[in-house]
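Step 1: inspect the first sequence and its tokens.
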Amino acid sequence: MIGEYGRKPSERTHAIASQFSACGIKCGVAADLALEHWRKLVWNIPFNGLSILAGGIDTAAILADAALYRAMLALMDEVIDAANKCEHTLERAAAREQSTLTEDMGRYKPSTLLDWKAGKPLEIEAIWGEPLRRAAAAGANTPRLELVYALLKHLDECRQRARPSTIPC
């Protein structure tokens, strides 16, 4: 999915999407790129976060555990509320759609989990921090997102500090 930041897609954007399609790469054009970013966060925030916080598990394990499944849905609902508070109309059905798509994927390890296992820094600010700040500025209530952000940020910072000296937090 491609689009243009802060404006509607131009002819150029459609031409680029056509080039991708001509090369066999499925590509759509978003009328509202920010809305599509929030839609993607409906999946990224819970699955990337819970996969690490639950001990390095895949999406199938999250879906199979009743408590994690409820946490996933609650996080999805918070992201949808945040998007709507930020004036990007995202329907409630987006959570169920993302859950169904994930069930169809089978065992999948989110990219942030792969980064974590490889010892790479996490995309804390891009995936959790910035959406949280925007949600707060718009007046959204996001206690679960705040908790996931704080925990992941702490884990990542501890690991980065511990690496050179091997002293744990």
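Step 2: inspect the second sequence and its tokens, then contrast the two.
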Amino acid sequence: MAKKVALITGAMGGIGTAICKSFIENDYQVVAAYHPEYDDKPTWLKEMEADGFKDIVCVSGDVSKYEECQKIVEEAESQCQQIDILVNNAGITRDKFFVKMDVNQWEAVISTNLSSLFNMSKQVTSKMAERGWGRIINISSVNGLKGQAGQTNYSAAKAGVIGFTKALAQEVVSKGITVNAVAPGYVATKMVMAIREDVLKAIIDQVPMKRLAKPEEIGGVCIYLASEIASYVTGSTININGGLYLQ
């Protein structure tokens, strides 16, 4: 039986890497989508191979641009035939208090963190519907639920991810496709762990569980949502924030 294929955007970041590893560990074929200007593919592949993760298909493109998303999926399909699972994980921050935020900082975050969901999902939903099976998993954030000062752009985009998820889930539910969101809190990626010690402690002190999420905990939830056991779950947002924000 052929492996199911999972395409992950923002695959070479901290959370993206953990999601890729989780899918490989669970016997999926992973397609890692990355931004050629920001991500170091050779170094990432070398580090993944050193950790025992091989046979990854890599495709490059800017998910904020619709035409490049078409090319990302076309290249992925040329190597793997079809996309069974799409994880919309790509994201950036351009933090600034609103009074100082310029239009470029706003548009960059909205286009990468929110418009990319349209750009990528548009390429795969019809084919998933034709096959009668598919999974779309959108990575949101605790700050899309509670808001965060200095992140009006990011919070707006991540809140939009949840609205997008709920609406698309209703449209494709009869076609065998589920659409869900994952909303992490603070995650112990390399970037976060490099924060100054006193600042990191202040972040952790806010969390009732008194720790950061492990990246593999985000990957584990994605595996659940991609699985058959989650076939009755759609339009949902799964919060992974250690009790930082409760709905």
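Step 3: confirm your contrast with the notes below.
The chain has a mean pLDDT of 96. The longest helix spans residues 103-131.
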